[in-house]
Amino acid sequence: MVDADRDRRFMGAALAIGRRNLGQTWPNPAVGAVIVRDTPSGPLVVGRGWTAEGGRPHGEPLALAEAGELARGATCYVTLEPCSHHGRTRPCADALVAAGVARVVSAVEDPDPRVSGNGHARLAAAGIAVTTGVCAKAARRDHAGHFTRVLKGRPHVQLKLATSADGMIGRAGAPGFAITGETVRGRVHLMRAEADAIMIGIGTALADDPMLTCRLAGLERRSPIRVVVDGAARLPLDSALVESIGEAPLWLVVDARAPADRRAALEEAGATLVEVPRDATGRSDLVAALRAIAGEGITRLMVEGGATLARALLDGGLVDEAMVFSAPVTIGAGGLPAFATAGPEAIEASGRYVLAAAGRIGTDEYRHWWVKDWE
Ligand SMILES: NC(=O)c1ccc[n+]([C@@H]2O[C@H](COP(=O)([O-])OP(=O)(O)OC[C@H]3O[C@@H](n4cnc5c(N)ncnc54)[C@H](OP(=O)(O)O)[C@@H]3O)[C@@H](O)[C@H]2O)c1
Prior knowledge:
Blueprint: H1 4-18, E1 32-39, E2 42-50, H2 59-67, E3 75-78, H3 92-98, E4 103-106, H4 118-125, E5 129-132, H5 136-142, H6 144-152, E6 156-163, E7 168-171, H7 182-193, E8 197-201, H8 202-208, E9 225-229, H9 240-243, E10 250-254, H10 260-268, E11 272-275, H11 286-295, E12 300-303, H12 307-315, E13 321-326, E14 335-337, H13 344-349, E15 353-361, E16 364-371
Parallel strand pairs: 3-4, 4-5, 6-12, 6-13, 8-9, 8-12, 9-10, 10-11
Antiparallel strand pairs: 1-2, 1-3, 7-14, 13-16, 15-16
Helix pairs in contact: 3-4
């Protein structure tokens, strides 16, 4: 008998373990799988798996390996439709059939045209009972990177902003001026760990000389790829970004303005150049930049740049999610104003976003928006 509450409970567990490797599995989605057996004393989890770093193995074969023979006749909860195409390993749908699983509960169909419905159909054809759409909304959010890359050909873009009580995002002549408190800093580093890549404009790189790595104890190896929109290749060779290339890769989005000697020097230092055309305003074309980054496999892009880049992405309809932290501090004279047309108020007024969550983190407040047409 199908028990909807029980299905939601175990899918919740699969979603939670699937999220463990967010930011580590690109170009693949981070999927969780839980195998549950009925026993006289109630349901028992006999296998758990989540997509490994680098995207392989997938969650299902790992959960099946842990369950062993106990998978026969059991139910598998999986956060995305099991794959049905042959890659380097056999399809997960076939592995579930071979293991003798009796039922598969999946959260959402995979939009990848190589799978899209075929995984579920393959299971059903083998006599496995298939239930789909359990916790679909949460799964679509967790897999937003994969969905956006497959459906729109660009990464899911998550904008992060910090503003002061008087609407400033920094102070002139004060590099790396911290607006928000220590607790938000920890949250931002966690967001970095869960992103495949992080993007800023050259303005922020020159003003703040940031490193953009994840510096949470134990999560240092989870630093995302750092991407700087630097059309004219102005990033200094002695910048923290270049000097930390050994810790995390550095990609520079450049255009025809970039002189050959600067390109060569930055490449020599270990940076990867992503060449894009110029847009109508003469700057690097951001749509082309996002497409190129997705082409390299990036699915989840966090943007930590300044007002110029944030505004351009918002104006271009390229922001899918915005996390705005507001601090109780007043910056006053010398403050750099947030965004005349694309600040937090403009995000709200645009009507394009819904407030998904709001609250307090340490001394600061946050508002978390998702684009409306996402659901
Ligand atoms: N509070 C916060 O959340 C926060 C976050 C980051 C930075 N900041 C502050 O913001 C200040 C820097 O602001 P900013 O606006 O100069 O930084 P930015 O937006 O990170 O960088 C601006 C540069 O990025 C490139 N760029 C931006 N938009 C582009 C577009 N549409 N197309 C192509 N290229 C584009 C341009 O480089 P080219 O001119 O070479 O084309 C532009 O000069 C710093 O003081 C920093 O502390 C605050």
